[in-house]
Amino acid sequence: xxxxxxxxxxxxxxxxxxxxxxxxxxxxxxxxxxxxxxxxxxxxxxxxxxxxxxxxxxxxxxxxxxxxxxxxxxxxxxxxxxxxxxxxxxxxxxxxxxxxxxxxxxxxxxxxxxxxxxxxxxxxxxxxxxxxxxxxxxxxxxxxxxxxxxxxxxxxxxxxxxxxxxxxxxxxxxxxxxxxxxxxxxxxxxxxxxxxxxxxxxxxxxxxxxxxxxxxxxxxxxxxxxxxxxxxxxxx
Length: 236
What we know:
The protein is α+β, with helices and mostly antiparallel strands. The protein has helices at residues 2-29, 67-78, 83-91, 158-170, 175-185, and strands at 98-106, 122-129, 135-141, 147-152, 189-198, 201-209, 216-222, 228-234. Strands 4-3-2-1-5-6-7-8 form an 8-stranded antiparallel β-sheet.
């Protein structure tokens, strides 16, 4: 009777013991709060004081511009007067004159008008020829459009003036037409227009600066026919 009672007690205690052991096993295996599967791999923290490397900004082209491109960008952005307005202003200083050349430059001094622009500000340097072929150099402020100086070139002789008059007469294409031809092929800001000779052919040379990459495209346009003889891109 005593042995039977003892066996009965052991059989009654066995389920409780199994429950306790199972609980201990679950607690020991589930120390991660119940998360099953492989443990997450922690991302190493960056060393103190070191910032992650930033991706390059595709719109930030300034770091890739050459010195010449930066100079063009600065000059073109500073100028407020386009080439044709500056040319009209220069032509207005000499009665009956024709445009020979005009170029956007940095002001280097020599203004006789007031107020005097600051050094380095944009100016249009124009050359216009009177009816006798006498060239006058006219400086036009690239911001205000006012004439800074106008004076004749004193180193011309009679042959020089006669030759220039002949060239202007032979130029059947106007500078405006030459610029229109150039800018139809390459959009941008005109920074130089001048009449010259290339391989014994009278041409209008036109420079156009592209405001996307600040490259410069130089055109030579036949001054008699309007044909494009040369188109050269300078990205430097």
